[in-house]
Write a structure and sequence with these properties.
Blueprint (H helix, E strand, L loop, with lengths): L6 E5 L3 H12 L3 E5 L3 H10 L4 E2 L10 E4 L3 H11 L8 E4 L5 H14 L2 E7 L20 E5 L6 H10 L7 E4 L2 H22 L14 H7 L6 H10 L1 H23 L3 H19 L1
Parallel strand pairs: 1-2, 1-4, 2-3, 4-5, 5-6, 7-8
Antiparallel strand pairs: 6-7
Helix pairs in contact: 3-4, 6-9, 9-10
Protein backbone atom coordinates (compact mmCIF):
# COMPACT_ATOMS: atom_id res chain seq x y z
CA UNK A 1 0.00 0.00 0.00
CA UNK A 2 1.12 3.57 -0.72
CA UNK A 3 2.45 5.05 2.48
CA UNK A 4 4.29 7.86 4.17
CA UNK A 5 6.97 8.17 1.47
CA UNK A 6 4.47 9.27 -1.16
CA UNK A 7 3.89 12.87 -2.13
CA UNK A 8 0.43 13.61 -3.49
CA UNK A 9 -0.73 16.74 -5.26
CA UNK A 10 -4.46 17.49 -5.26
CA UNK A 11 -6.15 20.11 -7.42
CA UNK A 12 -9.53 21.04 -5.94
CA UNK A 13 -10.49 20.66 -2.29
CA UNK A 14 -14.23 20.17 -2.57
CA UNK A 15 -16.05 17.08 -1.33
CA UNK A 16 -14.08 14.69 -3.56
CA UNK A 17 -10.65 16.32 -3.42
CA UNK A 18 -10.99 17.09 0.27
CA UNK A 19 -11.96 13.51 1.08
CA UNK A 20 -9.00 12.20 -0.93
CA UNK A 21 -6.67 14.61 0.88
CA UNK A 22 -7.91 13.39 4.27
CA UNK A 23 -7.52 9.74 3.27
CA UNK A 24 -3.96 10.23 2.01
CA UNK A 25 -3.03 12.32 5.02
CA UNK A 26 -4.41 9.66 7.37
CA UNK A 27 -1.85 7.12 6.13
CA UNK A 28 1.07 9.54 6.38
CA UNK A 29 1.37 10.84 2.82
CA UNK A 30 2.64 14.35 2.19
CA UNK A 31 -0.30 16.23 0.67
CA UNK A 32 0.11 19.34 -1.47
CA UNK A 33 -3.15 20.96 -2.58
CA UNK A 34 -4.56 23.99 -4.36
CA UNK A 35 -8.05 25.38 -4.82
CA UNK A 36 -9.56 28.51 -6.33
CA UNK A 37 -10.61 29.34 -2.76
CA UNK A 38 -7.29 29.78 -0.96
CA UNK A 39 -9.04 30.01 2.40
CA UNK A 40 -10.00 26.34 2.03
CA UNK A 41 -6.36 25.40 1.48
CA UNK A 42 -5.41 27.44 4.54
CA UNK A 43 -8.04 25.75 6.65
CA UNK A 44 -6.92 22.30 5.45
CA UNK A 45 -3.35 23.19 6.44
CA UNK A 46 -4.40 24.33 9.91
CA UNK A 47 -6.43 21.15 10.25
CA UNK A 48 -3.34 19.12 9.37
CA UNK A 49 -4.75 17.52 6.22
CA UNK A 50 -2.65 19.50 3.74
CA UNK A 51 1.11 19.87 4.24
CA UNK A 52 1.65 22.77 1.86
CA UNK A 53 -0.05 24.52 -1.03
CA UNK A 54 0.56 22.85 -4.40
CA UNK A 55 2.84 25.20 -6.35
CA UNK A 56 5.33 25.35 -9.21
CA UNK A 57 8.06 24.46 -6.71
CA UNK A 58 6.63 21.15 -5.53
CA UNK A 59 4.40 19.87 -8.36
CA UNK A 60 7.29 17.99 -10.00
CA UNK A 61 8.00 16.10 -6.76
CA UNK A 62 4.52 14.53 -6.69
CA UNK A 63 4.30 10.82 -7.39
CA UNK A 64 0.55 11.23 -7.85
CA UNK A 65 -1.32 14.31 -9.08
CA UNK A 66 -5.06 14.03 -8.48
CA UNK A 67 -7.33 16.43 -10.34
CA UNK A 68 -10.64 16.83 -8.50
CA UNK A 69 -12.34 19.81 -10.13
CA UNK A 70 -14.88 20.34 -12.92
CA UNK A 71 -13.88 19.13 -16.41
CA UNK A 72 -13.17 22.59 -17.81
CA UNK A 73 -11.18 23.58 -14.71
CA UNK A 74 -9.12 20.39 -14.97
CA UNK A 75 -8.46 20.94 -18.67
CA UNK A 76 -7.43 24.54 -17.96
CA UNK A 77 -5.10 23.46 -15.15
CA UNK A 78 -3.46 20.80 -17.30
CA UNK A 79 -2.90 23.15 -20.23
CA UNK A 80 -1.29 25.69 -17.92
CA UNK A 81 0.82 23.29 -15.88
CA UNK A 82 1.53 20.21 -18.01
CA UNK A 83 5.09 21.32 -18.75
CA UNK A 84 5.82 21.42 -14.99
CA UNK A 85 4.75 17.82 -14.33
CA UNK A 86 7.54 15.25 -14.04
CA UNK A 87 7.56 12.24 -16.42
CA UNK A 88 7.44 9.95 -13.37
CA UNK A 89 4.17 11.48 -12.11
CA UNK A 90 0.89 9.61 -12.46
CA UNK A 91 -1.87 12.13 -13.23
CA UNK A 92 -5.42 11.00 -12.46
CA UNK A 93 -8.59 13.03 -12.85
CA UNK A 94 -11.77 12.44 -10.83
CA UNK A 95 -14.17 14.37 -13.10
CA UNK A 96 -17.80 13.32 -13.62
CA UNK A 97 -17.44 13.13 -17.41
CA UNK A 98 -14.50 11.69 -19.29
CA UNK A 99 -14.58 12.38 -23.03
CA UNK A 100 -13.12 15.90 -23.19
CA UNK A 101 -10.91 15.52 -20.12
CA UNK A 102 -9.33 12.32 -21.40
CA UNK A 103 -8.94 13.71 -24.90
CA UNK A 104 -6.93 16.65 -23.57
CA UNK A 105 -5.18 14.68 -20.82
CA UNK A 106 -3.93 11.92 -23.13
CA UNK A 107 -2.65 14.48 -25.66
CA UNK A 108 -0.78 16.53 -23.06
CA UNK A 109 0.65 13.38 -21.46
CA UNK A 110 2.07 12.26 -24.81
CA UNK A 111 3.56 15.69 -25.38
CA UNK A 112 5.19 16.11 -21.95
CA UNK A 113 5.94 12.52 -21.00
CA UNK A 114 3.86 11.91 -17.88
CA UNK A 115 1.09 9.30 -17.58
CA UNK A 116 -2.56 10.37 -17.53
CA UNK A 117 -5.45 8.11 -16.54
CA UNK A 118 -9.08 9.20 -16.40
CA UNK A 119 -11.00 7.99 -13.36
CA UNK A 120 -14.34 8.49 -11.65
CA UNK A 121 -15.09 7.35 -8.08
CA UNK A 122 -18.62 6.03 -7.61
CA UNK A 123 -18.99 7.81 -4.27
CA UNK A 124 -20.39 11.08 -3.07
CA UNK A 125 -22.97 12.91 -1.00
CA UNK A 126 -25.85 15.26 -1.72
CA UNK A 127 -23.70 18.02 -0.21
CA UNK A 128 -20.67 19.73 -1.72
CA UNK A 129 -17.62 21.46 -0.34
CA UNK A 130 -14.63 20.69 1.83
CA UNK A 131 -16.61 20.94 5.07
CA UNK A 132 -18.51 17.77 4.12
CA UNK A 133 -15.40 15.83 3.08
CA UNK A 134 -14.38 12.75 5.04
CA UNK A 135 -11.50 10.30 4.88
CA UNK A 136 -13.73 7.24 4.44
CA UNK A 137 -15.85 8.58 1.56
CA UNK A 138 -14.40 6.10 -0.95
CA UNK A 139 -14.24 3.06 1.35
CA UNK A 140 -15.69 0.07 -0.52
CA UNK A 141 -16.67 2.13 -3.56
CA UNK A 142 -16.08 1.36 -7.22
CA UNK A 143 -13.57 3.32 -9.28
CA UNK A 144 -14.09 3.60 -13.03
CA UNK A 145 -10.80 3.94 -14.92
CA UNK A 146 -10.27 5.19 -18.47
CA UNK A 147 -6.62 4.50 -19.35
CA UNK A 148 -4.86 5.46 -22.59
CA UNK A 149 -4.10 1.77 -23.21
CA UNK A 150 -6.53 -0.83 -21.87
CA UNK A 151 -4.19 -3.81 -21.74
CA UNK A 152 -1.32 -2.14 -19.87
CA UNK A 153 -1.60 -4.22 -16.69
CA UNK A 154 1.49 -2.66 -15.14
CA UNK A 155 0.08 0.86 -15.48
CA UNK A 156 -3.34 -0.13 -14.10
CA UNK A 157 -1.66 -1.88 -11.16
CA UNK A 158 0.31 1.27 -10.45
CA UNK A 159 -2.88 3.36 -10.39
CA UNK A 160 -4.46 0.92 -7.94
CA UNK A 161 -1.37 1.02 -5.72
CA UNK A 162 -1.15 4.81 -5.71
CA UNK A 163 -4.86 5.13 -4.88
CA UNK A 164 -4.85 2.32 -2.30
CA UNK A 165 -5.26 4.70 0.70
CA UNK A 166 -8.74 5.55 -0.65
CA UNK A 167 -9.79 1.91 -0.12
CA UNK A 168 -11.71 1.34 -3.34
CA UNK A 169 -13.21 -2.14 -3.49
CA UNK A 170 -13.75 -2.55 -7.24
CA UNK A 171 -12.01 -1.23 -10.33
CA UNK A 172 -13.79 -1.04 -13.68
CA UNK A 173 -11.88 -0.31 -16.89
CA UNK A 174 -13.80 1.23 -19.79
CA UNK A 175 -13.70 3.85 -22.54
CA UNK A 176 -14.52 7.53 -22.14
CA UNK A 177 -17.53 7.24 -24.46
CA UNK A 178 -19.07 4.29 -22.60
CA UNK A 179 -18.40 5.95 -19.25
CA UNK A 180 -20.25 9.10 -20.30
CA UNK A 181 -23.16 7.12 -21.72
CA UNK A 182 -23.58 5.19 -18.49
CA UNK A 183 -23.20 8.30 -16.30
CA UNK A 184 -26.04 9.96 -18.21
CA UNK A 185 -28.28 7.12 -16.99
CA UNK A 186 -26.93 6.16 -13.55
CA UNK A 187 -26.05 9.62 -12.25
CA UNK A 188 -27.06 12.64 -14.30
CA UNK A 189 -30.63 11.48 -14.95
CA UNK A 190 -31.10 10.84 -11.23
CA UNK A 191 -30.12 14.41 -10.45
CA UNK A 192 -32.32 15.89 -13.20
CA UNK A 193 -35.37 13.86 -12.16
CA UNK A 194 -34.89 14.52 -8.44
CA UNK A 195 -34.32 18.23 -8.95
CA UNK A 196 -37.41 18.53 -11.18
CA UNK A 197 -39.58 16.36 -8.93
CA UNK A 198 -39.26 18.66 -5.88
CA UNK A 199 -40.58 21.61 -7.90
CA UNK A 200 -44.11 20.30 -7.41
CA UNK A 201 -46.16 22.70 -5.20
CA UNK A 202 -47.00 19.63 -3.11
CA UNK A 203 -43.38 19.47 -1.97
CA UNK A 204 -44.04 22.34 0.44
CA UNK A 205 -46.48 20.20 2.40
CA UNK A 206 -44.77 16.79 2.39
CA UNK A 207 -43.76 16.69 6.08
CA UNK A 208 -45.78 14.09 7.90
CA UNK A 209 -46.87 12.59 4.60
CA UNK A 210 -43.55 11.30 3.26
CA UNK A 211 -41.36 8.32 4.05
CA UNK A 212 -38.59 6.28 2.44
CA UNK A 213 -39.75 6.59 -1.16
CA UNK A 214 -39.81 10.37 -0.98
CA UNK A 215 -36.42 10.54 0.76
CA UNK A 216 -34.81 8.22 -1.77
CA UNK A 217 -36.15 10.10 -4.77
CA UNK A 218 -35.34 13.59 -3.49
CA UNK A 219 -31.94 12.98 -1.85
CA UNK A 220 -29.95 14.41 -4.77
CA UNK A 221 -32.32 17.28 -5.57
CA UNK A 222 -29.93 19.51 -3.60
CA UNK A 223 -26.85 19.85 -5.80
CA UNK A 224 -23.99 22.07 -6.89
CA UNK A 225 -25.72 23.98 -9.69
CA UNK A 226 -22.55 25.19 -11.37
CA UNK A 227 -20.85 21.80 -11.49
CA UNK A 228 -23.92 19.89 -12.67
CA UNK A 229 -24.75 22.50 -15.33
CA UNK A 230 -21.29 21.94 -16.82
CA UNK A 231 -21.56 18.14 -16.60
CA UNK A 232 -25.06 18.05 -18.12
CA UNK A 233 -24.13 20.27 -21.06
CA UNK A 234 -20.83 18.50 -21.72
CA UNK A 235 -22.69 15.18 -21.87
CA UNK A 236 -25.82 16.61 -23.52
CA UNK A 237 -26.22 14.03 -26.29
CA UNK A 238 -26.24 11.06 -23.92
CA UNK A 239 -28.38 12.87 -21.38
CA UNK A 240 -30.92 13.93 -24.01
CA UNK A 241 -31.22 10.31 -25.17
CA UNK A 242 -32.03 9.21 -21.62
CA UNK A 243 -34.46 12.09 -21.07
CA UNK A 244 -36.29 11.29 -24.30
CA UNK A 245 -36.59 7.64 -23.27
CA UNK A 246 -37.99 8.60 -19.86
CA UNK A 247 -40.42 11.17 -21.24
CA UNK A 248 -41.77 8.65 -23.75
CA UNK A 249 -42.19 6.07 -21.00
CA UNK A 250 -43.92 8.55 -18.66
CA UNK A 251 -46.31 9.44 -21.47
CA UNK A 252 -47.38 5.79 -21.61
CA UNK A 253 -48.10 5.73 -17.87
CA UNK A 254 -49.98 9.01 -18.09
CA UNK A 255 -52.18 7.78 -20.94
CA UNK A 256 -53.03 4.54 -19.15
CA UNK A 257 -53.99 6.45 -15.98
CA UNK A 258 -55.94 9.11 -17.89
CA UNK A 259 -57.83 6.41 -19.82
CA UNK A 260 -58.53 4.41 -16.66
CA UNK A 261 -56.93 1.46 -18.47
CA UNK A 262 -56.11 -0.98 -15.65
CA UNK A 263 -54.86 -3.67 -18.03
CA UNK A 264 -52.34 -1.36 -19.70
CA UNK A 265 -51.26 0.18 -16.40
CA UNK A 266 -50.72 -3.28 -14.91
CA UNK A 267 -48.65 -4.22 -17.98
CA UNK A 268 -46.46 -1.14 -17.65
CA UNK A 269 -45.90 -1.66 -13.93
CA UNK A 270 -45.10 -5.35 -14.40
CA UNK A 271 -42.75 -4.47 -17.24
CA UNK A 272 -40.90 -2.11 -14.88
CA UNK A 273 -40.61 -4.80 -12.21
CA UNK A 274 -39.12 -7.24 -14.74
CA UNK A 275 -36.66 -4.57 -15.97
CA UNK A 276 -35.52 -3.98 -12.37
CA UNK A 277 -34.99 -7.71 -11.82
CA UNK A 278 -32.95 -7.98 -15.01
CA UNK A 279 -30.79 -5.01 -14.02
CA UNK A 280 -29.90 -6.71 -10.73
CA UNK A 281 -29.22 -10.17 -12.20
Amino acid sequence: MAGDAMKVGIVGLGLIGGSAAKAFSAVGCTVYACDVDKTVVGYAQIEGTVTKELTDKNIASCELLLLAATPQAVIGYLKENAHKIAPSTMVVDFCGTKRLVCQEGFALARRYGFTFVGAHPMAGLQYSGYKYSRANLFNGASLIMVPPVHDDIEMLSRVKELLSPLLFKKFVVTTADFHDRMMAYTSQMCHVVSNAFVKSPSSLYHKGYSAGSFRDLTRVARLNEGMWTELFLENRENLLDELDTLIASLAEYRKAIADGDATELYRLLHEGCIAKEKSEA
